[in-house]
Design brief:
Elements: E1 4-5, E2 9-13, E3 18-23, H1 35-50, E4 56-61, H2 72-76, H3 82-100, E5 106-110, E6 114-115, H4 117-123, E7 127-131, E8 138-139, H5 153-161, H6 163-172, E9 175-176, H7 178-184, E10 189-191, H8 194-207, H9 230-247, H10 252-264, H11 269-284, H12 287-304, E11 320-324, H13 328-339, E12 343-347, H14 351-370, H15 376-384, E13 386-389, E14 400-403, H16 409-420, E15 428-431, H17 438-441, E16 451-455, E17 465-470, H18 476-488, E18 492-497, H19 504-520, H20 525-534, H21 541-548, H22 550-558, H23 567-582, E19 595-596, E20 604-605, H24 609-612, H25 622-642, H26 649-660, H27 671-676, H28 678-692, H29 700-707, H30 720-724
Parallel strand pairs: 3-4, 4-5, 5-7, 6-8, 7-10, 11-12, 11-14, 12-13, 14-15, 15-16, 17-18
Antiparallel strand pairs: 1-2, 2-3, 8-9, 16-17, 19-20
Helix pairs in contact: 1-3, 3-11, 5-6, 6-9, 6-10, 9-10, 10-11, 12-26, 13-14, 19-21, 19-23, 19-25, 19-26, 20-25, 22-23, 25-28
Length: 725
């Protein structure tokens, strides 16, 4: 064989007959497990096996990351005949097996993160050595996008780690550092430098001329015992129950993984690979996987890169940030901004309040230090960047100011004027309001073109989404500044147009209110909560209402300057008012809402709910309850799209998943319409509108879109009339 260099890899043979295959996909941002690459790799690998002058092959990477996974764009577009796909995957397995059983050693010299298909490529090698760096991750993240490892990962992992640890990696998408991966059996050795990595790989090849994989070694014993051992049987039984409890049957890939492990360990290994190939074919063709890839990966990545910013505007850098209000939201914004390296002026009405806001960051950092995720030195440096104050004059020199005071238009008016007196006229001012229209708040500003909404979610340090709201007079410079700042602090921005409640709060409100309506109609509270969670919502509507506080909901409604309120809004307000005014049930913070929150105990539904709302288990069937909860959110999301509040379907989906926890297996609140089926969704909403009210009424444009046979993702591309023609 000859040395080779192309756009995908380099192949070099040294004087000792050891070949090095270096992955270097120069036309991609990173190395990817793709059909094109795998075909080329297998061709070279098989030729190397047949060449008697080559003693073995080292597989490594020429990039900082070894291979972080598969080309999800390719997987998303996989379609056609499932049987043909199955045969193609099985053929790949068989080609990998020629490497494993070819009698020539292959060693993976893993010099960067190897996950998913990238690590499966390493599993085809007989020995795996990893550079011992905390930046490197090893694992199988496929479950996070509705998939499963399809390159042999599911069938092989239990042989290396044992069943219990293997299922943890496969079902939870665990990403382990090299030392953890070594301890768990996924890899065989560590190296402390690139030079040591290469030397160890070469030495192993020279010392092991005829290697055998564990799954081909009849003497190999699965760590912890096989499937029929007491531990193995117990593990599988527990895993089946846990998967059902966690997924409610909404994520088929998890069930497929269990089936592959259970069935694969009872047959010969080549048959196990057939089982894996069959289930992978089902997973990659599922609507759940396609939805999760589109929203959870492609949509997320585009947003993180700032796709929403105006392309003509120069980059806006925030070196000094001002925050008005050191409450929970302001304190959280201060922490994430200081963590990103910004100087933060944290202003409150008292120095005690401002210092308390800074203490929030110290609390987070103390926990991080205790868990060895930070150091005292790093914590000290971060805290030094947060400057508590009561003086507006300290805001001078800020590149951006974010107002995070109480949801009171009069208070917001006061702080806006106070701040603009010291803020340079070319700088951007933002409000963290969750409901009040930005256009209304901008009336307090002398420069509304630089006024914008930057809506964070609580807790700020954990929630990834930021909703950027454009007022009627907001100019592109402010939009660019908001997006650039959001990306700089590691959050995911979506840009929406102005509206009462904007997008997320508006749609989130329908989730909460429909839960209350069901309660008022006599559906038991536990039934409402459990059905919502069964559909994939993180918590039930009553529990989440307690968290945002019932009193805040009342205040927002009562202070709404708009004159028109829908019957649904009024009904939700009256139920909330009943809980607060008649029964003193206010919030989780106060220990009493729809739930009781006894100290040191788990929360439990308030025992009086059943009698207050005349609960009757036979009021509605479970399927109707579930559809009312989910359909209501989707209808409102579509209205936001039609009204121009949302700028794209992808933004709507991403905002719903990250903002209020709409289940990602559906793709998001808008993709949910396609998930159900457009015709079916419209028909069911028509039925609900007749029975329960106009809040379920389907806009005419959605009806036309469905009737023309288009997907929700076709919205705005072609008119339904053109499609029909």
């Amino acid at each position: 064989m000859q040395n080779i260099k192309n756009d995908l890899f380099e192949f070099n043979i040294d004087a000792d007959g050891v070949a090095t295959f270096t992955i270097n996909q120069v036309n991609n941002p990173t190395n990817l497990f793709s059909t094109e690459f795998i075909n080329e790799y297998l061709k070279i690998a098989h030729e190397a096996i047949a060449d008697d002058s080559i003693k073995g092959v080292i597989l490594t990477s020429g990039r900082s990351m070894f291979m972080p996974g598969a080309d999800l764009r390719e997987l998303k577009n996989m379609g056609g005949d499932p049987e043909e796909q199955f045969e193609a995957i099985l053929k790949m397995h068989q080609s990998f097996r020629k490497i494993e059983t070819g009698g020539k050693p292959f060693v993976a010299a893993i010099n960067g993160t190897a996950m998913g298909g990238g690590f499966e490529l390493c599993l085809t090698c007989h020995h795996r050595i990893v550079l011992n760096s905390p930046k490197i991750k090893i694992g199988f993240p496929e479950i996070n996008v509705g998939l499963l490892p399809g390159g042999g990962g599911v069938a092989k992992t239990p042989y290396l780690t044992g069943i219990q640890k293997g299922l943890t990696y496969l079902l939870q998408g665990v990403q382990a550092r090299p030392d953890k991966a070594l301890k768990d059996g996924l890899i065989d050795a560590l190296a402390n430098s690139p030079e040591e990595l290469y030397a160890a790989a070469k030495q192993w090849i020279l010392e092991n001329p005829t290697p055998v994989q564990p799954w081909d070694n009849k003497k190999h014993k699965i760590p912890g015992g096989g499937l029929m051992s007491p531990m193995g049987a117990q593990t599988m039984m527990g895993a089946i129950g846990n998967v059902r409890k966690m997924t409610h049957g909404n994520y088929p890939a998890a069930q497929y993984i269990l089936s592959i492990v259970h069935d694969g360990l009872q047959v010969n290994f080549d048959r196990a690979l057939e089982i894996e190939a069959r289930y992978f074919t089902k997973a990659v063709g599922s609507k759940e996987a396609k939805n999760m890839i589109r929203t959870g990966f492609m949509g997320m990545q585009a947003a993180k890169k700032g796709k929403a910013r105006p392309k003509t505007e120069p980059k806006y850098e925030v070196k000094k940030l001002g925050i008005l209000g050191a409450g929970m939201m302001g304190a959280g914004i201060a922490y994430v901004s200081a963590k990103a390296g910004m100087e933060v002026v944290l202003k409150d009405i008292s120095i005690e309040g401002a210092e308390k806001g800074k203490a929030y960051s110290k609390k987070i950092l103390d926990k991080a230090i205790s868990r060895k995720r930070s150091t005292p030195e790093k914590a000290k440096a971060l805290l030094a960047r947060i400057h508590p104050t009561v003086s507006a004059a300290d805001l001078e020199g800020c590149d951006l100011v974010i107002e995070a005071v109480f949801e009171d238009p009069n208070l917001k008016d006061k702080v806006t004027k106070e701040t603009e007196a010291v803020l340079s006229s070319d700088k951007v001012y933002a409000s963290n309001t969750s409901t009040i229209p930005i256009t209304l708040l901008a009336e307090s500003s002398s420069r509304p073109e630089n006024f914008i909404g930057i809506h964070f979610f609580s807790p700020v340090d954990k929630m990834p989404l930021v909703e950027i709201i454009v007022g009627e007079k907001t100019k592109e410079k402010a939009i660019a500044a908001a997006v650039d700042y959001t990306v700089a602090i590691g959050k995911v921005p979506i840009v929406v147009n102005d509206s009462r409640g904007f997008y997320t709060s508006r749609c989130f409100g329908t989730f909460v209110s429909e839960g209350m309506f069901l309660l008022e109609e006599g559906v038991p509270a536990a039934m409402i909560e459990n059905i919502a969670k069964g559909k994939g919502m993180p918590v039930g509507p009553l529990a989440v209402h307690d968290e945002v506080t019932l009193t805040l909901s009342m205040h927002v409604y009562e202070s709404d300057p708009t004159s028109t309120k829908s019957p649904a809004q009024e009904r939700g307000y009256q139920i909330t008012k009943k809980m607060v005014k008649e029964h003193g049930r206010t919030s989780k913070k106060d220990g009493k809402g729809f739930y009781d929150y006894p100290a040191g105990e788990k929360k439990r539904l308030w025992s009086e709910l059943g009698s207050i709302f005349n609960s009757n288990v036979d009021t509605l069937d479970k399927e109707t309850i579930a559809k009312r909860i989910m359909h209501r959110q989707a209808v409102e999301a579509y209205r936001c799209l039609e009204e121009g509040v949302l700028r794209s379907v992808v933004d709507g989906d991403l905002g719903s998943v990250l903002g209020w926890g709409f289940p990602i297996y559906t793709g998001g609140a808008l993709s949910y319409i396609d998930f159900v089926g457009g015709e079916k969704f419209v028909a069911e909403c028509d039925d609900f509108a007749n029975k329960y009210g106009e809040r379920f009424s389907v806009p005419a444009s959605l009806r036309a879109l469905v009737e023309s046979g288009q997907s929700i993702h076709d919205y705005g591309k072609k008119s339904p009339a053109d499609v029909k023609a």
